Amino acid sequence: MEIITAPAVVEKPDRHYAGIRVTTPFRGMFAVRDELMKELYAYDVGTGRTFFRLHVVDMDGPMDIEVGVVTERPFPAAGRIRPGVLPAGRYATMTYVGHGRRANGTLIDWIRAHELAMDVAEDPAGDRFGCRYEEYLTDPRTERMKTRWQIELGIRLAGASADRSHRDSTIRIL
């Protein structure tokens, strides 16, 4: 893994998107992501950046994931494609090329070392994130070699917004 932009805390605005959300096992999850990208690109959802969002993470069970494309305004629902918002707030981010699992570990280690709390709640289904994503700075539609993609990894930090999708859940440092 090559780090392009070192870990940092950045403020992000709300960003509209069109996305497809599914539950899938961790094993084979990236093949599912690739199929969802193809399905999403078959619709005219615009030319915004593609992202892969992890709503609930359970490495030993089902993963609640979503693939989306950032849009300028709310996107009308079409088949499995639904409108959504990547929520505003403070995010720990870094940009990398290469191995995503190592990048995630690097960013989480950095968050812990800086004693920051992630916007994540314990859930029987796994760790439920307020917002955790990989945004593809390299367009997957034009660059097929995943090893060349520049990817921004982002994890929303606790206290990022009063309007949280899991408002009644606890926040913890992983």
From TrEMBL:
<dbReference type="InterPro" id="IPR029442">
    <property type="entry name" value="GyrI-like"/>
</dbReference>
<feature type="domain" description="AraC effector-binding">
    <location>
        <begin position="5"/>
        <end position="158"/>
    </location>
</feature>
<protein>
    <submittedName>
        <fullName>DNA gyrase inhibitor</fullName>
    </submittedName>
</protein>
<dbReference type="InterPro" id="IPR011256">
    <property type="entry name" value="Reg_factor_effector_dom_sf"/>
</dbReference>
<dbReference type="Pfam" id="PF06445">
    <property type="entry name" value="GyrI-like"/>
</dbReference>
<dbReference type="InterPro" id="IPR010499">
    <property type="entry name" value="AraC_E-bd"/>
</dbReference>
